[in-house]
Amino acid sequence: MSAAPYGIVCPITHACNVLEPRWTIPILSEMWGGSTRFNDIRRGVGNISTALLSKRLKELEANGLIERIQDPATGQVDYIRTPRAIALEPALDALGKWAQCNIEARDALMNTDVSALMWKMRGLVFTDKLPKRQIVMQFRFSDPGLAYDTYWMLFRPGCPTEICSEIPGFDIDLFVETSHVSLASILLSRTTIDREKEEGRLFLSGDALLARTMGKWLYRRTREDPKDVRQLDTAAS
Fold this sequence. Notes:
Elements: H1 9-19, H2 24-32, H3 38-45, H4 50-62, E1 66-70, E2 77-81, H5 83-86, H6 89-102, H7 105-110, H8 114-120, E3 135-141, E4 150-155, E5 162-164, E6 174-178, H9 180-187, H10 193-198, E7 203-206, H11 208-212, H12 214-217
Parallel strand pairs: 3-6
Antiparallel strand pairs: 1-2, 3-4, 4-5, 6-7
Helix pairs in contact: 2-3
């Protein structure tokens, strides 16, 4: 039996003291994905209270992992990772890959937060594959007990993708009816669009071209491109 590397227990214990409090690693992962504003981090992490997120951010700042920067002119606050946090990227990436290989996929996906999933959808649509016009998609989730079961995605040429939890006042081009497990499984390439449709877990109606080309404009992860859906694999944390 091989022995553990000398001196590894104590450093790992210290690392756990910093990173182990719940939500700490998902917060750092969301910031790794590019979020710097409080509300963006909260939406990306999902299911965390504003009070707890504020506490965790203060702890991360105290531990030298993030820096709080306030614009004196506007009062806007951004949270920026320090080099110490950036150095954690290989460890977080390895943790996500380990979870993908060793955690039962359905158990992890069942714990995916719908609001966080839809927030991430802003960056998971290839807008250059969509028609060059305003497009509105409605996503309705069949999962019971959701605070919001319907979301709208608004695409406009030259503008960032928008996610709405209220009717945006535009005609809807594509209706998507699914469950969070089904949609997350497609994004993680654990299933296919055609299979979910055949099994009755995904229904598309409305614009026939958008429905027919979903496989072109909807992101699906490959081994070489983990993109920003890595948290879906560790959603049960």
